[in-house]
Amino acid sequence: MRLREKGNVGWYNAVLQPAFHLPYPDDTLAFVVLSTPSMFDKALKPFVKKERLKIIRDPVDQCVSHHLSGVKEKFPDQKVDIIFDYEILPSRKPKFLAQTAAHVAGAAYYYQRKDVKLDPWGRKKIYGVCIHPKYGGWFAIRGLLLFPDIQVPFLQQSAPVDCVSTEEKRTELLEQFNFHWQDGRYRDIIEVKERYSEEQKAYFATPPAERFRLLGLTRLTDIRDH
What pTM, to 2 d.p., does this model score? Predict the structure, then answer.
């Protein structure tokens, strides 16, 4: 896991409707947390080996929670709030929009339909996707760390790297992500420096209820897809 980019809440709230705003002052310090391809071997597998008897739900979620709780413990004199990517509000809306957060923090570029000038999809629903300049689509946004008592009014915002810069490639990316996401080709829309191992690909391609077996576990309850 990486505290990939820092930002403030105001950057995020400024691009969203009020229903999705985070309930913090605009200058509140925040970090977007990404998991990179090495997370599987360096974090997940050691966590499973050590905590195997405590894993009763999704191993990845529990691993992320474990490590972010460890980060929180390193700041005993600070209030630290954690929002995980899978958390939802009573209204069923997500607690935060992960891809928007990654984009405004400069961590990864969130490519959306509006980024394609010659829209070929008509009335079809087209979802956007974040691409990282080093990992392409081989990464995940796992959460936010917020420091409510730290205000950063002079923090300079950095734009994300526009690594899929041509119209043709952006169209190809959104086409692959929306209609052929299972084959994972969209993840390699750019030349990447690191991607998931074959073992990791097999893990995430396996139906959620069967993933425990791949990690040498036997519990089969409450597994969620990633």
Answer: 0.91
